[in-house]
Records
---
Amino acid sequence: MLKRGAKIGIIGGGQLGRMLALAAYNLGFKTEIFEPQNNCPASLVSNTHICADYDDINSLTEFAQNCDIVTFEFENIPIKAARIIEENANLYPNSKSLELTQDRLVEKNFIKTCNLECAPFFEINSLEDLQSAITKAGTPCILKTRRMGYDGKGQFVIKTPDDAQKAWDEIGQNPAIIEGFVKFDFETSIILTRAIDGQIVFYPNSQNIHENGILRTCIVPAPLNEKQIAKAQEIGAKIANELNYVGTLAVELFVGDEIVVNEIAPRVHNSGHWTIEGTATSQFINHIRAICGLPLGNTEICAPKIEMQNLLGDEILSIPELLKSPNTYPHDYGKNEIKAGRKMGHVTRLIK
Amino acid sequence: MLKRGAKIGIIGGGQLGRMLALAAYNLGFKTEIFEPQNNCPASLVSNTHICADYDDINSLTEFAQNCDIVTFEFENIPIKAARIIEENANLYPNSKSLELTQDRLVEKNFIKTCNLECAPFFEINSLEDLQSAITKAGTPCILKTRRMGYDGKGQFVIKTPDDAQKAWDEIGQNPAIIEGFVKFDFETSIILTRAIDGQIVFYPNSQNIHENGILRTCIVPAPLNEKQIAKAQEIGAKIANELNYVGTLAVELFVGDEIVVNEIAPRVHNSGHWTIEGTATSQFINHIRAICGLPLGNTEICAPKIEMQNLLGDEILSIPELLKSPNTYPHDYGKNEIKAGRKMGHVTRLIK
């Protein structure tokens, strides 16, 4: 259990790191960010910021030695960097969680070893692989780079076999997978926090609505029946236990006749931002409590219906207007540059 | 209305400043603290900290010029310093609120000009004044320094006229007042936020229980009937309007056959910490919204019953134990040194 005033290191300086740092302050902890970019959302609130690259071994070592514990807010940390951190500090979740989720092919294979359902998938290393996979998967199907994709980037929806060359070029001919199309009614996620001793708390599920590959809206509760909720929790627990996971974990799911795993995020997740005002203990606070060896908080919902919307691009300028409505909680991540489609903030509404 | 990413200056670096800074970060603002002490609760979370004394004109000027707006978290700022700030930035609340509340005699006279009830009081400049006042006020009565007292410091309860010399020496023979004893059933406070345009929102009242002059426990709701609540709100509004106040204001009240004003605090207040988890918009967030020219948030209560307890001295070490209970929200202010009776944190429980 971490002592009073301990320093929590967070790898990655985006809004997830920012909200983790703010959660850490409630309990009197200090925060240090490791992030190559300056003036990022998290470093705008953290005590200190090591502004260095992920191949800077000295800085990584210094960071890990400065901190009493280390966590991360994004999964595309080079494994070599994560291992250097682990040599010098406790890293929660561990580097195995990163290894198994930062490569889509490795992730899909891991899901299969857990005896869970995911989209049919094929390994793609060449145009020939791609053409063959399209035949097996059928169309439409999705070409995704194995590494570094997020928020719809590094993906190409293939509508006919003629799209193959264009798709292959579009993703830079990088190692990839083809995912077969999964028929579903809606998308949800299972968010949970797992403690060092293995205890798990689950969050209520949200219905997650995407546009152009980016999460747009969450509606809580999701239209799941009890059996489906139990299944979603079973999936989350299975993955968390297999990883010996510590902290908050999110698994994105397709809901149709079956519940099918889409992606695993070994971190706090956009589809859980509503938990800040919407549940008894947010995903961020429980993540901090878990990695610090403190008891987990309960996760009951605070209103019968809750909505979260991302504020993209210049939607961030609508905050003064949003604040006119009751039970409305806009968040601004402090990003200087407004770009179309960029996640600038979010707003949660409790409908009481 | 303050622009995105603006910098809010907070004079004073204690836990109230810390919680104001954390509130400011939700909306993407930056924070700078002006505080003579280093490593204080607020500077442990703020972006920057000007560590200088209140007579350091250059530092005060630099601070005010750095910030887009300035507020404060404690009222004993030398008026000269407040005026220097006001020459260089918008100060909310204004320096008049400081002037009228940092001297107990001035404050009592102000309360009378508002046609409000307060304890009978007498100006004390000498032992002779004191002896005469004790005769008029009766015993018990309380000797309080006019300036710089808080949390029971700079006070002496006079039980018999023989206490006069000891009391006078105990408070360092400083300019003082005698307050006559007020018979009351319990103590409460009225906390409100007033916007730049004069709109006011009120918070539910807490019953405030003190020990040794320090607030120990708040119980919400306070056992006030509707008429008493209306009276308390009338008192708060009267004072806020007279001061043309902007921000969160707290007025401590004695509740008996009448409601009598005890003290005015031109700032967020210990008896309002429970509002963080206990109402729709905390006293801290509404203070930030008010001074930034943003709409005020609603203040409905989130549970039928709420308790707040201060964590004094080594009680702060009980946080891991407290976290085992549901709907329990401990806060640690990050103060390094544990001293008996020192406000180290607080814990709020929502009883659902």
---
Amino acid sequence: MRLTTMTDYALRLLMHLGQHRDRLCTIAEVARVYGISEAHLMKITHQLGLAGWIETVRGKGGGMRLAHEPVQINLGALVRSVEPDFFLVECMASGSVCTLTGECRLTPVFSAALDAFMLQLDGHTLADVMPPLRPRAKGPTAVALPAPTRRPLR
Amino acid sequence: MRLTTMTDYALRLLMHLGQHRDRLCTIAEVARVYGISEAHLMKITHQLGLAGWIETVRGKGGGMRLAHEPVQINLGALVRSVEPDFFLVECMASGSVCTLTGECRLTPVFSAALDAFMLQLDGHTLADVMPPLRPRAKGPTAVALPAPTRRPLR
């Protein structure tokens, strides 16, 4: 059982944009960071733009950014808008040709399981899953250190 | 988000066997009933036999039957044994190459969603999803009719 690569890439792309809220990011940059295809990213960027998750700026110096704060981007809503379908078994599709369609009770059982799955995602936002922003200096005492101690020793 | 065709076919195959507990069923018969490929069914039959869900009898007059009563076949256990993996997003696979692996918090969120999904299936057995066995005669009073009324009129 898998989500499509498109949804996987959409999540990664949005996490990257969430980590760089102060500037526009490019497809080339995201492709390089994750080592994934620019062509796939172009497709997903277009889809995320249409769905209103990101804003794009064209031309030289252009790029993309989140259209909302990470805490406003609900994971359930995002996955529903990107994933092409949730036909776990064939009878969940409208054009099902299974001879049991309408007779067996597989659809309600899998629909309930899918609802339980989505309910979990509905309880999280992009902010919950983003990697923590890296501190400029490492170590448990780094934040408390006064600026002069980070100067080179003379 | 989909389960594989193998799991879909496994569920249908077991439902058919559950409806014909009094005899051995053949792959050709199941393929004909559902209009699906014999080659796919052979593969899934082999897998279901190895996993102990069905028993097969070789040779002329042979076939397959459920190894347990439908009420003993748990849907969660069945899906776990047939579905190749549950890598909803790439970072759930052991060989993940995503540069965020171990940094973002996507894995625990999707793992919790998957647990909620499987918990629903764990609460059902094959008996819950099987189509109702067809009555020999239709109509609300058919069962109550005494035997003589079904004889041809003289």
---
Amino acid sequence: MIIDFAERRQTLWVQCIAILLLLISAGCAWAADPLPAWNDGKAKSAIIDFVTKVTTAGSPEFVPVEERIAVFDNDGTLWPENPMPFQMAYAVDQTRKLAASDPAVAANPMVKALLAGDFATLMAAPHHQGLLEIIGLTHSGMTVDEFRQQVDDWMKTAKHPRFDVRYDQLTYQPMQEVLAYFRASGFKTYIVSGGGADFMRVWSERVYGIPPGQVVGSTTRVEYELRDSGPVLVKTMDNLFVDDKAGKPAGIHAFIGQRPIAVFGNSDGDKEMLEYGTIANPRPSLGVIIHHTDGEREYKYDVNPKSSGTLVEALKEAPERGWTVVSMKDDWKTIFAAP
Amino acid sequence: MIIDFAERRQTLWVQCIAILLLLISAGCAWAADPLPAWNDGKAKSAIIDFVTKVTTAGSPEFVPVEERIAVFDNDGTLWPENPMPFQMAYAVDQTRKLAASDPAVAANPMVKALLAGDFATLMAAPHHQGLLEIIGLTHSGMTVDEFRQQVDDWMKTAKHPRFDVRYDQLTYQPMQEVLAYFRASGFKTYIVSGGGADFMRVWSERVYGIPPGQVVGSTTRVEYELRDSGPVLVKTMDNLFVDDKAGKPAGIHAFIGQRPIAVFGNSDGDKEMLEYGTIANPRPSLGVIIHHTDGEREYKYDVNPKSSGTLVEALKEAPERGWTVVSMKDDWKTIFAAP
């Protein structure tokens, strides 16, 4: 015998009992309330009704497990994007670090503008050249392992200016519940974000339970090199793919290759993926917009956000498309997940 | 109560018993022999030893489930690539169809060369322009749904010129066993192929049990359009990413975001991903090369293949790198999986 059968069977029994207990406890939890941080109301009902109908065997609206794809924008949907997207805060901190040790970097006009908080100058350059220069400085030239380490170090130490906690301790509790509820209901949950895939993959599994291969984001090409120390992948700025607006359905197709049936977003950058998931989809579908209506507990914005997150067109389309609009102020009992 | 608890619990019990039975039967099958289509020998042992050690809890070489990533080249590794890669056969058949109904297509010199079997002319154009023209004709301009339908129709009717069966009935039985064995051992199995991702995703789940999101291949950008009929994605030839040679580790990083610990390939196009998976990997790793040594039952080639599949450099590197070289003639009892 190649493999000891008795030992393997014992392991299998233990695994199976563990799975059984998990499933039963999950069942109990749902039976009580799958979304305890949500106030009762239209939004909560829309989500629960959708999951119930697509998972009810025998129902005409049942969707087989392999087609249960749910996609979630990240900034503004799973965690805040104020006072700036967290990856931008990373870029600022890294640029400050680089400028302190390299006079050439410090002398760069775009670096000067960024560190002076002069975003107008930074954004004035045509074709986002100012922003791309900063991203190039902080997101390319190193190996993917070096980049991962830098992001990890930053995430462990940097703090949000208003809430004074680590950035990864600011995920939305109601959305963590949605992620868990969907996964327990047989969905594969994907992040589909304008943020950098390499940036998000450092912490996506730990923070959201979403493995690297289920993170769709903006990318640039990496270059393979076989060094004396072993193979490395060097980050470049070539072939930038921006996973935003019409790029989101394209990114979903490229990385997932299936049409989602549930789409969660919060801004006009999510409009096209909301359309892609919900219009003329032969399967039942759910579109949800998280509306930032709570200036007291989080931020209040839509037409004129301070940084990113403009929500005008998608909000206008919502009634016609049947998208559920979530008011953070009214629909969410708590905002942030406990660390 | 939102969800009926008793009913859910009953469903959970049924699911769990099913899982239990599956696990036990899988356990029994492995105990007997996880790779029955393989002759006993070095190659088979190398594969089983690797899986055993990385899945043995408590062993210093144990690898947690979330890091069990196995990648498989497709053409020449999971099915043949002769007399030409099957996707090329698709392109030829589609071109013939297009030429029959469109004189402008028929007059195209590259189309003429292709349909005359004059591959020398086709390949002589600089920067693969001839080939790209054919791919452009047959792989762009339509929506991804239209393309999927065309590939599906073709796969259901086209037959392999030598074996006279459908192309998707020519997968290698020993490799189907490897895929099943790895998945049953907690691995996520990915295709990483120079072939088009959109082409492979049409049948990857049905043929290999590999869902679309676990297919890494060559891609071009798709364009999102909201038409009256609903949202569509139109295939273009822009931003071609060729998932071959050094592109394979890059593709693995972009799509999977994790380093594989098991890599199966058959040609020099797989050399870089074999290196990436196995050199200086902090985890135990396995590199396998399928060597086409059986002209009688399949094809015999390495230095001078008729179409693709040159195997020179990777074979030279194999002993130094500790890669396992599989001789199809000696190591495989059967070649093709039963339809």
